[in-house]
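Encode chain A's predicted structure.
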Amino acid sequence: RSIQKAVNAGDLSTAEAMLMSQAVSLQTLSMRMIEKATAQEWMPQFETFMKLGLKAQRQSCLTIEALGAIKHGPAIMARLAQVNVAHGPQQVNNAPPAPALPTPDPASAAAVITAEEQGEPAPLLAAPVTDKTEKI
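Encoded structure for chain A:
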């Protein structure tokens, strides 16, 4: 009951001591399991001891994180992202679409075929002029 009263009063020294002892115990357990794994001759035993050792190591890290959260408050992670707000009938485009490649004129493609059939050099294909391209 005295621990409960101390925690309610804001004194977390007992909880901090308990978490630190737990972290050290888990780290010790982790190292012993990993040492035991390296002494194994068979893969199933090696794998079992390594899994246990790595789980204990992860729990030790989580315990230290909990201790840090008690001492310094929780860590707040913020992710910066683009915020698009449109009020009214506006449309929000995050990225403009890639421009479409110009398609050759079917008449000039036919001219290439007939020129090649006659043994003449093929004329250069010209892209159609659109409002996005400039006339030369």
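The helical segments are 2-8, 13-38, 43-72, 106-117.
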